[in-house]
Amino acid sequence: MEAVVTLNNVSLRYLAESGETPALDNISLQVKNGEFLGIVGPSGCGKSTLLSMVAGLLLPTTGSVTVCGEKVTGPEGGKSAYMLQEDCLLDWRTIEGNATLGLEIMGRLTGETRQRTNDLLKEYGLENFKHLYPRQLSGGMRQRVALVRTLATEPAICLLDEPFSALDYTSRLTLQDDVWAILRRAGVTCILVTHDIPEAIAMCDRIIVLTKRPGRIKLELNVDLNTDAPNPMKKRQAPDFRCYFSRIWEEMDLSVERASALPQQT
Amino acid sequence: MSSEHQLFLNRLKRTRMYIRLAQLGLVVSFFALWEVATLLGWLDSFLVSSPSKIWQTVAQLHAVGGLYHHIWITSLVTVIGFVGGTILGTFFAAILWWWPKLHLTAQPFLIVLNSLPKIALGPLFIVWLGTGYLTIVTIALAISIVTTIIVVHNGFTTIDPLKLKLVHSFGATKWQSFYLIVLPGSYQTIVSAVKVNVGLSWVGVIAGEFLVSRAGLGYLAIYGGQVLNMHLVMTSVLILCVAAALMYQAIVFLERINWRNTLTGP
Asked: Model ipTM?
């Protein structure tokens, strides 16, 4: 299958007055068309930095990032679209105005694209709310609006940067199901960055575990839960779920820290 | 409505009424005490005037016809002062936001200008601009513009970085991120700046009228002082109190209208 995103020996160092910080070291990976890739790792391992490079917000110090066969040289609307920790809806725009924000910025807001955005809003049960303002909607609905805003630009790749981390536990589980179903139905290629291991296992086809800073690829794991569960919530009940969890947990550097912090048994 | 709720509402209403009554009582007893004190000779009405004398002065001014002219001139110049100060200050703040290096260069000078008592520039303005209203408006502007630049620029640079990241990932130009995110996102900051500027503008206008004018409430006060007519001084101070309070209420009223949604559209 054709690779939508290719990272080739990518390294990135943050430069500051006080010195330089290596954030990512020699990362090579590919994301196939329609694939749902998860990236997990301890905090500060450069997960979000990796997404910023795919989006073109940061350029690698060495190596190259390719999206849809073209080298990334800067942010370019339409190729990749973000879903961030918060819904980032603009309080002063209506739901419809928020959903069309990306199209408007790219200068692609026409009668046709507006209609398609409205169809998306309708599909996700937001049609009756499109003239309301974000503060009038619940947290879950706001995240769905953010998702429509992302999908309206028809991105080749969707970048999810810990999109559920600001939510409470129940809304998080509900939204994982919601977002997963919507993205799967749209057939979008996705990269999900998260520190929540079960979330990655439940939602992704493949998981990459990064080491502590500077981030290197420690483990690459195809997720096959051997179940015909229709959504992430049900997938969590698959017998193999726990095996994947312990495998990833072991590989994360935290497990080592925790083990050494435990009192020695005599 | 339940009887408990009705009771609660009644209690609330009563508390509010008591507070209003107490406020009214304070005002009435203040003026009554003032009047009585001057009548009985506890206080010299030549020095502190008295409510009845103030009333006579108002009636006189009203009969001569100059009263409304003075109030109008001073209020108009004050409005020009704070509206102009806010618009110009926001404009310069935008320029400094656009070119961060310019801001870094200008910062020490802004601090010096901010701590300088602007009234000290009065003589300069008189020489440069003459003894007309141009000088008074300039003093009012000078007082409010520097703090506006500092406060609004601070608002511009503390916009939610996630929202900026979002629009950058859509490939937004600098101008787009300014008018889509930075300016509407700083609405509250600009509104607070307006409120502060109303007060500063009054100070600037009255000080300006002390220096150069032949009309206005500041002129009445300084003229009254020069001819030892304390009734005139007290009258203009009281009218100023009322005018300033009314103007502040007008601003609060205008603030309630949701301009941001009206101006930025859907």
From this structure: 0.86
